[in-house]
Structure formats: structure tokens, C-alpha cells
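Deviation from plan, reported transparently: zinc ion complex.
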Amino acid sequence: MSEQEKSFTDWGKKALSQSENGKRIIISETVDSYKSKGFTADETLEILGANDVNNYNLIQSAVDAAYGRTASVETNQVRESYIIPAKYSEIKNLVEAQLNELGPKEFMNKLARSKNPIMPVNDKAFNSYLRLASNALSDKSSMSQLHDGLKKWFEEAIFVSHCAAKSTKNEIRVASVNGKYVATNERGASCEVCLDSGTCTCAKFANSHYADFGLACEHVVAAADKVSPHQRLLKAVREAKVQDSNTTKNSFSFQDLRTVVRS
Ligand SMILES: [Zn+2]
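Because the crystal trials were delayed, the predicted structure below was used instead.
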């Protein structure tokens, strides 16, 4: 990796670590690297959890996902509404469903020949993806080869949305209006975000068919970042109450409050 690439990666990681969803990307990458080194789910959780107690719940969800464990109760609760994808494996099934529904030709057109394509590939690459997509319908190993090929394009789209949501150049401001969110940039252009369905009215979202592939644009990411501290606060208060009823001391200490704010 060149110095320039390294510094871009460092910058990206720093930008990501400043948002809840960005943290999920970094954590799930770290969990994957522990898994590939042969650590068990419990070992990975113990090591990462001990080093980063503030993000314990995020780490636990990432470990559950990476090792295919039954999701924790907390994850099930969160999964009731739309979740911003942090990696390709989280939207893989949607991508496969699109291929089954549309057939290979239309599937590839939607991915690579739309107005603002997720995969801006040349004709040669298009045709080889098309062959792979055709074979994938009846052949499992072609399907996994196809997923390997698509992964980098989707993860780039995910990365770009997360970085754009945090970028000071875009200056996305989010306001809550009648249960929906309106995201406005510094030029005054605005779009409407629905977090329940994970959709946005911006051109990129429509032109790149983000809804069909489960992807989030920067406005959805920015809106989700805006509400998550509130949801986490409510959840932490619920947890504190449970702890409270489990202990003989009837106390809600300063330490609890500090954990609530920081977690
Ligand atoms: Zn948008």
C-alpha cells in the first residue's frame, strides 16, 4: 500500500469512527480479521469487548453476524426497523433476490447501466459479469464467484455514503419533520429520508436503485446518525432499570449515567 493510499485509509477510518454506523464498519472488519486468524466467537468477543467496553453491544452484534450465531435479543429489537448496511454480507440476500427476480440481463443493466450505476464497468467486464450471473442461477460456485466480484463495488458504495455523510464539505443538516427527516446540504438542496424503510428522495438513491439493493445514501446515513443517540439513551435507561430491579441497592449512580451518555 502506498503512503498516499495509507493516509487515505487512515483518514477514512477516522471519519468513520466518528459515526455510529462508521464504527460498525470498523468493528465488523476487526471481527472478521480475528475470525480469519482462527479465534472463536467467544475469544473474539472477550478480546475486543475488553478493549472497548463503550461499544460492547456493537461488538457483540458484529461477532454474532460474523460467526453466524443466533442474534442477541438486542439485535432482534434493532432489526425491526431498517438497518444501515455496514458490509456486503448484510445485503447479499437482497442482491441475490434481485438476480432471481429480474434475470441476469436486467440485473446487470440495473447494476451497471443505470443513470448513476453502482458498477460503472466497461462492456468487456459487463459481459463477463453477465455470463457469471447467468451461470449463478443454476450453479452455486458461480453464485459465490459472482458475490466475490460484486462485493467490492457494493462496499465502495457503502464506504462513500458513510464518508459523504460525515464530510464537512457536504455539510448535511438533518431536521425531523412529521416523523420523516429532511436532509439539506450547504447549497440548500434538500431531500426527504424515511428511516423505517431506509429510503431517500435524492437522485442518487433513485438512479442507482439503492432501495432494491438495500443500500443507503449519505442522507439516510446522516439521518440515522442523528436519531441513534436518542434510541441508545432509551435502551440504556431500560437496561439500567432492569439492573436496578436486580439489585438490593435502589440506586441509579453517576457511573450509570456516564455509561449511558458514552455508550
Ligand atoms: Zn439521499
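The chain is about 65% helix and 5% strand. We consider this an acceptable substitute for the interim report.
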